[in-house]
């Protein structure tokens, strides 16, 4: 039986938030887009995220610039989608709640102040506050706070809603989202460039492929014949039962910054505490290099709990209802990988966002659309290029 | 590490502990209740005239103890335990390592949603049974039972025993036809058939009508149920038009089979067969050093559970060098019991037509108040067809019960959800954040709270 399959300008592999953002931006630019996911959309790393849109955890540099572009793009994008899709389908529980980073020891106070000063120098709104002011921002915070920095720009959204809203826009514009279809490799045309994606349901002809497979991006790149170094880093989050509002901002310990940028193996935990629209409190986040091993470790959960109770003693009596884990995709230099693969014309990568994929998705999607359609980019794409040292294998 | 640990002290777990202890190995039996027996042997406390089940010789029983987490360690598994009343602070934390784990965590009964099922006065058959047997309390004075499967019959008997007037037992399937089509299974379940005959006689004596292909499709009332709508069903459980009847009641009990309690098996990484734990002829799961017995491997009643428990306990003990004779009777009982269970399963399936009883605003998840309409919108508008995305879009299964009540029903409504994904609860029982913060993670560590 011959099945005629419509040609897509671009096939996006991976229906997580980054793939969804790429597909949304490409379809807004006029491309016909098909999004594939071997499982259900928004069910991998996206479903394991807390929905952080942070500038506070990034020092001056390329990732901070991408984060700031994304932070200003998200509300704009959501407003556009509200017009296009209506309020219900565009609701992603967007909350520009701001972040509070606290130092609870003299040793962490000075590095935090320095970090914030460097951020201020490049234009981040980072307000050093006294312990008394921190207590006003967060009444239940431990009295052991030595100093704190308030970041009004930090925001939050619900990542599965965000990804599915973006995918709804893709469909609304005539694109397709195909769940349960695995991408197995690419087909090349006579000129050596991508001419289609080989899938579990046959070949989909296309002009370009975007690899947005998150922690599985390395595997798809290899299957496509153009391997890149993207590895998984395990994380766990605890969720409490619903509470009266107890935590107002995204609150985290100054040691979070060190853990995010660290490349060390083994378990690291650093507290990030926030409440959700449903009244639960999310407590993250751990970082482990264990490959794609999903085994839960009580030791990791204990560390998360211990640090959360240290920051918010009032949470000690609260029931923990569940814990969930996921895998963050990271490149050896901890920068996202966004751009063309130099070895295979028509193959693009958008991955390696580590724990910041939700926040960075809006700008990443826009950047991919600009690159694929050959337009000037709104942020410098050079630092994220695929052929930088350590990424090409 | 060098001990058999049995989780669950129902018929399967008690039999496993007894069989393992008989070989001379160290055995620990963990259960969340105060006494032995589980749900099946639930009985009134001594103050109400009940008798305690005597201790099992050679078995250390950890009562009122929940396993809230299970993790692999070199050479076996580590159980994280909390002992004490679930809602009280100051529960004692311990860690127990084992190279030979028997999971006998059982099943809880399944309710199907229908308009009004969230009204006070609507109970699961299991809850009504527990109140009758454990507290000598009847859930109402005019009670209707609806659902499918033979479990409705002992519930009717218990309710009559505590003074309720049972208005009828409504069986959504036609059990007798299903039974007769499989004479081998009927033979295998001879004892069971006699038991059923006894219940039928009991219902007749109390003039309780037993109505096949009939069920409760709606409950009515403002503060609590005062009336229900019953209806005759087609073979696939759609309502026969014109068969609806209003019946005044003050309580209704529903039971549509059982859902296995899988979180510890899933945490251990045991492979599932359908929605149950896959086991071999020695009750070994796909994970070395982990055995399963009773209702988590399939629903077949207490006798089958007990026989499976004997095999599992013995196999676990042998792993540690325990010596015991081949349990020929238990092997034969398991073989016969499984045939009976398969016939039971064929005779009492939950058929897809129940989904047509739902209204747009019928709650599917009571904890998070997610109605049928919201679930449909999550699938239609947001493609929420994976366990995680469905939960996070609709909030189904995110509440206090963590999907134990609604997960199976949501899976039927959405289709294609992974049963292991639905049962993945790394925190198998709620634990306070402060308890978690001070929990020991090694056997020689102390709770620091």
**Which architecture of the largest domain in chain A per CATH?**
3-Layer(bba) Sandwich
Within CATH, the superfamily of the largest domain in chain A carries the name FAD/NAD(P)-binding domain
How would you characterize the largest beta sheet of chain A? 8 strands, mixed
What's the gyration radius of chain A in Å?
21 Å
Oligomer: heterodimer
CATH topology of the largest domain in chain B: FAD/NAD(P)-binding domain
Measured between the Cα atoms of the first and last residue of chain A, the distance is 39 Å
What is the domain tally of chain B? 3
Strand pairing plus helix content of chain A: what structural class?
A: alpha/beta
Unreliable sequence segments of chain B: none
Helix-strand string of chain A: EHEEHEHEHEEHEEEEHEEHEEHEEEH
The fraction of residues in strands of chain B falls at 15-25%
Terminal CA distance of chain B: 25 Å
Number of helices of chain B: 14
Strand order of the largest sheet of chain B: 3-2-1-7-20
CATH class categorisation of the largest domain in chain A? Alpha Beta
C-alpha Rg of chain B (nearest Å): 22 Å
CATH superfamily of the largest domain in chain B: FAD/NAD(P)-binding domain
Which chain pair shows the most residues in contact?
A-B, 47 and 39 residues
User: What's the average pLDDT of chain B?
Assistant: 90
Pfam family, one (chain B): Pyr_redox_2
InterPro entries (chain B): BFD-like_2Fe2S-bd_dom_sf (IPR041854), FAD/NAD-bd_sf (IPR036188), FAD/NAD-binding_dom (IPR023753), Metab_Enz_Cyan_OpOx_G3PDH (IPR051691), Opine_Oxase_asu/HCN_bsu (IPR017224)
Organism (chain B): Solihabitans fulvus
Protein name (chain B): FAD-dependent oxidoreductase
């Amino acid at each position: 039986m011959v099945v005629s399959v419509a040609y897509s300008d671009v096939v996006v592999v991976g229906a997580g938030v980054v793939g969804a953002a790429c597909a949304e931006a490409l379809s807004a630019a006029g491309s016909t887009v098909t999004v594939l996911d071997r499982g259900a959309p928004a069910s991998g790393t996206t479903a394991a995220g807390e929905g952080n849109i942070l500038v506070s955890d990034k020092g001056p540099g390329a990732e901070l610039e991408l984060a700031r572009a994304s932070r200003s793009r998200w509300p704009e994008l959501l407003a556009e989608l509200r017009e296009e899709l209506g309020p219900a389908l565009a609701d992603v529980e967007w909350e520009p709640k701001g972040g509070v980073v606290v130092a609870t020891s003299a040793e962490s106070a000075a590095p935090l102040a320095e970090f914030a000063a460097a951020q201020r120098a490049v234009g981040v709104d980072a307000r050093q506050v006294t312990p008394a002011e921190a207590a006003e921002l967060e009444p239940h915070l431990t009295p052991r706070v030595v100093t704190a920095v308030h970041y009004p720009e930090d925001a939050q959204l619900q990542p599965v809603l965000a990804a599915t809203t973006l995918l709804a826009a893709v469909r609304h514009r005539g694109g397709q989202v195909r769940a349960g279809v695995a991408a197995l490799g690419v087909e090349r045309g006579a000129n050596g460039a991508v001419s289609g994606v080989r899938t579990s349901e046959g070949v989909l002809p296309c002009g370009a492929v975007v690899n947005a497979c998150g922690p599985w991006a390395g595997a798809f790149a290899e299957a496509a014949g153009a391997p890149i170094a993207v590895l998984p880093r395990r994380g766990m989050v605890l969720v409490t039962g619903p509470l009266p509002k107890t935590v107002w901002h995204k609150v985290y310990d100054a040691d979070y910054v060190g853990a995010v940028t660290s490349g060390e193996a083994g378990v690291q935990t650093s507290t990030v505490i926030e409440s959700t629209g449903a009244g639960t409190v999310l407590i993250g986040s751990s970082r482990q290099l264990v490959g794609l091993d999903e085994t839960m470790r009580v030791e990791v959960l204990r560390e998360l709990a211990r640090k959360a109770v240290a920051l918010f003693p009032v949470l000690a009596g609260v029931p923990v209802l569940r814990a969930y884990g996921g895998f963050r995709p990271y490149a050896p230099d901890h920068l996202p990988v966004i751009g063309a693969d130099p070895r295979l014309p028509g193959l693009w990568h958008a991955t390696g966002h580590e724990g910041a994929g939700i926040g960075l998705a809006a700008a990443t999607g826009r950047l991919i659309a600009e690159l694929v359609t050959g337009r000037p980019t709104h942020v410098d794409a050079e630092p994220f290029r695929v052929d930088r040292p350590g990424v090409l294998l | 590490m060098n001990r058999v640990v049995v989780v669950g002290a129902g018929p399967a777990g008690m039999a496993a502990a007894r069989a393992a202890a008989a070989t001379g190995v160290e055995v620990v039996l963990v259960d969340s209740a105060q006494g032995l027996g589980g749900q099946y042997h639930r009985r009134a406390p001594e103050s109400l005239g009940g008798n305690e089940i005597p201790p099992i010789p050679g078995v250390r029983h950890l009562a009122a103890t929940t396993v809230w987490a299970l993790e692999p360690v070199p050479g076996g598994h580590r159980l994280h335990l909390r002992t004490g009343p679930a809602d009280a602070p100051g529960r004692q934390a311990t860690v127990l390592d084992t190279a030979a784990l028997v999971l006998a965590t059982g099943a809880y009964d399944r309710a199907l949603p229908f308009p009004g099922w969230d009204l006070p006065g609507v109970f699961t058959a299991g809850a009504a049974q527990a109140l009758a047997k454990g507290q000598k309390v009847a859930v109402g004075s005019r009670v209707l039972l609806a659902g499918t499967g033979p479990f409705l019959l002992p519930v009717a008997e218990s309710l009559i025993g505590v003074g309720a007037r049972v208005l009828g037992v409504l069986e959504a399937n036609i059990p007798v036809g299903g039974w007769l089509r499989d004479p081998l299974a009927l033979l295998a379940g001879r004892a069971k058939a006699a038991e059923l005959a006894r219940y039928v006689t009991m219902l007749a004596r109390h003039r309780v009508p037993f109505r096949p292909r009939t069920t409760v499709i709606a409950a009515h009332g403002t503060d609590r149920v005062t009336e229900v709508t019953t209806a005759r069903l087609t073979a696939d459980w759609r309502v026969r038009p014109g068969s609806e009847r209003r019946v005044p009641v003050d309580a209704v009990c529903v039971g549509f089979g059982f859902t296995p309690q899988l979180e510890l098996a899933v945490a251990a990484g045991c492979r599932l067969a359908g929605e149950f734990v896959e086991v071999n002829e020695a009750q070994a799961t796909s994970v070395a050093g982990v055995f399963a017995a009773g209702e988590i491997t399939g629903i077949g009643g207490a006798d089958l559970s007990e026989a499976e428990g004997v095999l599992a306990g013995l196999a676990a003990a042998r792993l540690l060098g325990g010596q015991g004779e081949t349990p020929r009777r238990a092997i034969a009982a398991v073989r016969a019991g499984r045939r009976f269970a398969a016939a039971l399963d064929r005779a009492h399936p939950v058929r897809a037509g129940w989904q047509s009883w739902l209204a747009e605003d019928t709650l599917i998840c009571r904890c998070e108040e997610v109605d049928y309409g919201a679930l449909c919108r999550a699938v239609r508008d947001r493609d929420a067809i994976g366990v995680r995305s469905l939960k996070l879009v609709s909030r189904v299964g995110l509440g206090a019960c963590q999907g134990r009540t609604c997960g199976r029903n949501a899976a039927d409504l959405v289709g294609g959800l992974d049963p292991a994904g639905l049962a993945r609860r790394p925190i198998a029982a709620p634990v306070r954040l402060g308890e978690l913060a001070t929990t020991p993670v090694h056997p020689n560590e102390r709770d620091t709270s």
